[in-house]
Amino acid sequence: MSYAAFKMMHWATGIEHCASGFVTHSPCNSTPAEIPAINSDDLDSSEWPGERRVGPVPNLVVTAANVLEVYLVRVQEDDNKTLRASEDQRGSGGTMDGVSGAHLELVCHYRLHGNVESMAIMSVGADNHNDRRDSIMLAFQDAKITVLEYDDSSHGLRTSSMHCFEGPDWQYLKRGRESFARGPVIKADPLGRCSGVLIYGLQMIILKAAQVGQGIVGDDEPTTSGGAVSVRIESSYVINLRDLDMKHVKDFTFVHGYIEPVLVVLHEKEPTWAGRISWKHHTCMISALSINTSLKQHPMIWSASNIPHDAYKLLAVPSPIGGVLVICANTIHYYSQSISCSLCLNSFGLQPESSSEMPKSKIAVELDAANGTWLSPDVAIFSSKTGDLLLLTLIYDGRVVQRLELLRSKASVLTSGITKIGSSFFFLASRLGDSLLVQYSSGTSSLSSANMKDEIADSEGELHLAKRLRRTPSDALLEVASYEELSLYGTTNTSESAQKFFSFIVRDSFINVSPLRDFSYGLRINADPNATGTAKQSNYELMCCSGHGKNGALCVLQQSIRPGLINEVKLPGCKGIWTVYHKGSRGHVADTSKMDDDEYHAYLIISLENRTMVLETADELGEVTESVDYYVQGSTIAAGNLFGRRRVIQIFARGARILDGSYMTQEVPFGVHNSDLSSNSEAPVVVFVSIADPYVLLKMSDGSIQLLIGDPSTCTVTVSVPTVFASSTEPICACALYHDKGTEPWLRKTSTDAWLSTGITEAIDGHDGLYNDQGDIYCLVCYESGTLEFFDLQNFKCVFSVENFIYGKTHLLDKYAREPSTSFQGSKGKVSEDSNDFLKELSRDMKIVELAMHRWPGQYTRPFLFAILSDGTMLCYHAYLYEGLDGAPKFEDAVFPQKSADASNISGSRLRNLRFVRVPIDIATREEFSNVVARPRITIFKNVGGYRGLFLSGSRPAWFMVCRERVRVHPQLCDGSIVAFTVLHNLNCNHGLIYVTSEGYLKICQLPSRCNYDNYWPVQKIPLRGTPHQVTYYAESNLYPLILSFQVVRPLNQVLSSIADQDIVHMNDNDNVNSDDLQKNYTIDEFEIRILGLDKAQEQWETKATIPMQTSENALTVRVVTLFNTTTKENETLLAIGTAYVQGEDVAARGRMLLYTFVKNVDIYQNVVSEVYSKELKGAVSAIASLQGHLLVASGPKITLHKWTGTELNGIAFYDAPLHVVSLNIVKNFILLGDIHKSIYFLNWKEQGAQLSLLAKDFASLDCYATEFLIDGSTLSLVVSDDKKNIQIFYYAPKTLESWKGQKLLSRAEFHAGAHVTKFLRLQMLSTSSDGTNITPGSDKTNRFALLFSTLDGSIGCIAPLDELTFRRLQTLQRKLVDVVPHTCGLNPRSFRQFRSHGKAHRPGPDNMVDCELLSQYEMLPLDKQLEIAQQIVTTRSQILSNLSDLSLGTSFL
Question: pTM for this one?
């Protein structure tokens, strides 16, 4: 393996930075985020003096490693008149301030070529009536700053300015240093006049904000509808803080209440260290600089010194108080220009010598690593390192702060950031647990007395329940509704004088799997032992150690969905399946929407080769084919409900039947309508059907279109051929109906004259109100030429058309919409004439084979548009509304349509403000279509297990689930190709599904409810309430032994005596500890090995056994090893545990080696394991592996090989490692050893002389994180990840000259992963179809392994070997894409993937790894661009896509 591909499969979920601001809307027109107050008249509001209304709600912006996401907070007002269905109401839990629920909805999502180091929102200030928008400022390593603003026209973010202080011109800013403790830090002035970025530790960049209408970006292109302009940057300059005598800057912030921006810097005059704290402890100070951006001057206006050495954070106090809070580990200080006060938090808080006694807080707490924000001008909320929420109140008079008060509020997650969103919400971002959106209320609590619960549950353990709760139907929701509301709710009386209460409710949460410390690969609960090939892979799942402390959890991750089987039947030759409802003669009155959602299906229709079966779906499925009037002599094309589920329509090749239950009420033959059709030709038959009550659209085999129009009053249909299609000669390749449901149809808003819309007037005078308020129905038609058109079914006018829809452009807009900016029109490309013909030639045989458009119910949902190309590519678009800036001419067109016939056609009835943005899809759904008529592959579902979306059948079936208005794609590999799919909801299969496999099995299933599908992969979290460190898998009994640690509080004398018990420390050492200190509590970690197994009956994970460790003993490694017993001459599978005693630096390190055997009878679950061996060793036992029946143990700086006699371990060989071994890997008799500082060693074990010998090593110094062997056919490579987030691949080549006669490992590839890789797992790659099926076993193609890896950010990826030809092709494409694709934030993917050495000497290795993160952008390019690039690099588009598809198929391990 000389070449490899780096591929991410699950992106980071641990949120590091969060901020809120008005990014997509300005405060004065914040309709997107809030519902207007229920009644705006004054009478109503005066009745409720105590209630606050939720004001304008800003956006939430979050980043996780290199992922940037912008969300809207959707608030549900508590309106008793319309109680919404539970599916809408995501976060349940009582009403507060007139809000019954809130959830987060995704606006846009980007994966950047660089990790976000710091983020700030550049805001205009807190005025609710301005129409300026905020901008997002991001800082990247080493000194790159990007300012992003929201662009309405493209429904995404665009870069407004970029500032780079790197490279030779700016080298002097580093002052000779190469490595820095942290990346750039960015903060913004509260009034948006400027912002500051601290780079290279000592350089302050001041970015000056532009006045309205100025800035680096020209105003020639329009930015937003309604003319709301985002804040922009005009210029920048550098302040060298060293010149101002600031040497060690810890933090800085801008303070409120000054005419000019004032920057307060926290810095240390001269550092202290642990050994000198008692003499030198108040070393920090703050300095306030007044920033004059026009004169570039920054005089110091005030300063304060004598601040404790452990100060680390500044928090600017909002107006009207002003000033700044300095947060230290044990104290909090308030400073302003004129006054200061402080608060001591625990017994470690030191007084400066000269000062008076410091007031102590009522609670003892340590505040290092805390995050805080302001809930109101005088109350700040802090989240401490233990996950407690603390409220700090400033008791003030005027602008004079008299004292500080701190109170403990609730327990919550361990946070990485906290931000306030508007006046009623705050967001707790977390890398270690699930992030939470919390609503808070101050003043007297407005919760009704029924909801005032006394008991308070911690919010993180119950969140997985809240997750499930979200998916349950409404009746079950009521029982557990109180559960989530307890999670963060409770009133806190902040002070006697103020009498302020704060109550909290968790409204929404993001699931998080980071940090992934370790993972193990095991069988799923519903694995199929007979599966082969790709289907076999979905038998497995990843068991990951994630979280920390009380947020610790075991995450069960699965890449593919495996539905839970209820029943299966052999049913060969099945062509399609449908389930239909039957309401009988029930009137309209009873038809409430609640009944619709929960109504059971009545019939299941199964279409076979030449007949149709009908089954009743009552309690049991029973065949009723003979006793019903359905057409059963041939196969069915489609079936569905019409007239509000009062009738069923069944369509077959030559006609249709309307049925009331089992009785036919009408039969419609599809005769030949065109008399000029020659009589000898075969009459066309139906090939595709789309149903939208009360219309049915039919596509015939000759490409013509017929429409069945239903009459709700008589429940009959008539056939018509729309004149538009009767006269047109252009062949149609795909069509569909779109039903724009609801009382306010969404597409109506996009029409320029919505108030003139025909649909509304008819709804008023319609004789039967039941159907006309159901919204509008549109017909979507795609022609062979690639044009897409929308027709309004009322009068069959074209209301929206897109040319070259087939190209898959990033944005679609109506061709008549006047578009001032040329941002998306440029996708035609300036191609020369001859190559243009070539593109036409190539794209001619491409066509759209299937269309679907759907809007799922919900107040804020927008329609999705899906299309499948003939080569299997799936296009997915999301609609959005954009009102252009040229309002006047449009309005004229709309008012005077009678200018000419042509003008009237293009007039105001068009959906001119409708646009679509393309949504990237993460998995390969491509499959080549044959020339036979393809079956429809898209099935839309409203509720399967509480989720909505669509199912894509075919050879690579996948679920597209719509959560938070984003598409989550999950493949389903377990049954191979799927022919047909439908939903089934009845007594025994609640919101389940039925599908038919290509082997001819019909399976009735349910979606596993224990998983959460709103994630990159389906995930189930098992809370542990402790930190998991390592996990291993025992395959025979499906058990997972893992290392867990818990924080325990012990009195100090107990801790000291436990050390003294071991006869190492003499008690007289403790004489200098005074008796008060001995009573103090001390937190220590206690370890245990917990063995988890799955209870098959309950489907719950339970503890089968625990092995406690001794006091101050840490378990470091746990492995299941196979040893050869020299006495019985048999192999034994044992559980091996390596530990270390942690007793401070005065005690020599020791450890224990423990061996346990697994007991076979699992009935008595106490003794799943029993100890067979235990021995104390010198040095910590940090890694264990089994090598050809022997046990290899790394204890301290030595690795020893032991043989097992059944009772004893006898050492037979050893090797002295340099410092401390962190990982051991074995292949045959080769050993790969990773050292904590000294890189990797490659050893060999020789049985003859019983010796471990060094073959080669890497001579560079490297802090290893994880190591593993990579096998590609007959070549062996060595992979290592390090603390600088790099991955390197080495190889052993004793014959080459550079390897110093084989002593030195040579570099094969190096790559910057952008995350700390903690574990590699070697898995065999799957064979793909294009490899050819006649490969002999054992050849290079089959003996090819990839490495699955996990990172501390919560991301999962793989490194897969490539053959040279594929690598060269993809590398050329990658170089091309660096220039062709517009990268978000202007980041260069090549510089991001460059090996980082941070100033250490490093000889660059070869560039032999391709980045699939960049290559995946190729499929998102428009088709013409794809063909052009493929032509330029002398290959074909299908060749590139086949290489990418093979790579993703070969690595679909789960």
Answer: 0.90
